[in-house]
Amino acid sequence: MSFTDEIYALVVDDSEMHAELAANQLESRSDYLVTEYVTSAEEALDRLESDSSIGAVVSDYCMPDMDGLELLDEINSEYDVPFIMFTGQGSEEIAVEALQSGAEDYVTKSSSRSIEKLSNRVENAAIKHRAEEELSMLKAGLDNAGHAVKVLDSECNIIYVNEAMEEATGYSQDELLGEDPSIITADEDGEEFYEEFCSNLDSDEIWHGEILKEDRDGEEYWIDQTLSPITDQNGNIKYLIAVSNDITEKKEMEQRRELLNSMLRHDVGNDIQTLTGFIEILQGTDLDDEQQEYVDTIQECAEKSNQLLHGVRDLLKNDPKAERKEINLEDTVEEVLDHTSHLAESRGIEIQTELENDESYPVQAGPLLNQALSNLVENAIVHPDQVETVTIGAEKNDDSVELYVSDDGEGLPEDFSFTKGDKGEESDGTGLGTWLASEIAEAYGKGIEAGESEEGGAEFVIRLDSRHSFW
After folding, report:
1. What angle do CA 288, 336, 341 make, to 5 degrees?
2. Is 1 a domain residue?
């Protein structure tokens, strides 16, 4: 609401002639006042109850049944509207009592300029009241905003922080007020930024960027911040409003993507190139039918790995969560069985499934779920701990599905970790398969857990949403 909107004023006087005259004169002397009048306090209360747009009440003091002070008390108990006493009778005691009771102002009718004075007082009272309401709503909005908000004065000192800012920093409002914002900046670049920014407050440009912060306990976190200047009528910056959003999880995801992309580009990419080169050499030799079959299988695996490499790298360019769609786990499990059955047979290992034939398992996932499941199954097959059976299964919950791979081997090593490259001391693997599975599970679902199976072996559980959710 603008301060230049019309102001609806209600004039109350038991004399209809005086009430109408005052209402007409007020309206004629103002560009904003729109007036109406009533001739009793009861009528005034009825109008206030039926019309919430009334922005000010102008009342006489001496009226039958209910005088001006009594009307003021009634209004204060039920409504939030400025009240101006306008009367030809009374004394300084009545004026003082009216002001003490909450009247915005008191104007006597004796002066020749009383209407002009009253017009100015009504306008000022209504505008002040409207501004206070808007500031109160703004402060309530800032106090309860989901983003952290702080306000700086022209000296770049903190003069306001909301609850979200207190929660983010670990500092209370009392501890932050009057301080320089660099108190919660984690690095020298951040401190230099605030020093430079605050020394150039002649700019009215909005600034937006990312800053590394540090909370009260020394924990670092990243924020996405927008600094907006508030200027006075002369264009001088009076305040800076800083609105920030915690993007630590996003930054960590970006770092993980960069690490994964680097790994795929160098480690896996180089291995595939080497493998392809040896395949070409073998294809140029005199191979019998059995050897040719083995080479063809190796070549097929190399091609699938190369497709995976490009698929993952393409996925890293986008938000993995945005790649999610509804897929059916039965189809994924069937594809993984086709892909891993030959390897399992060569090791004398049986792969069994625990999926109900009459059940469907729709989940929200992406194209790499197949690879995550394959990695876990292959990890169980090649693990040197006397595995005889690998089980792929799923269990439904209210809003999720638990996809698991378990075996009957000797279980996970004590030093097991999902960290890239970490593997058990006796493992023949690289540690890459379970790490990549965990990354895919984090991107598509609710993560992955490793533990002990019912047979005493290893078990990996991926939790996936069974219905669409908004991220």
Report:
1. 40
2. no
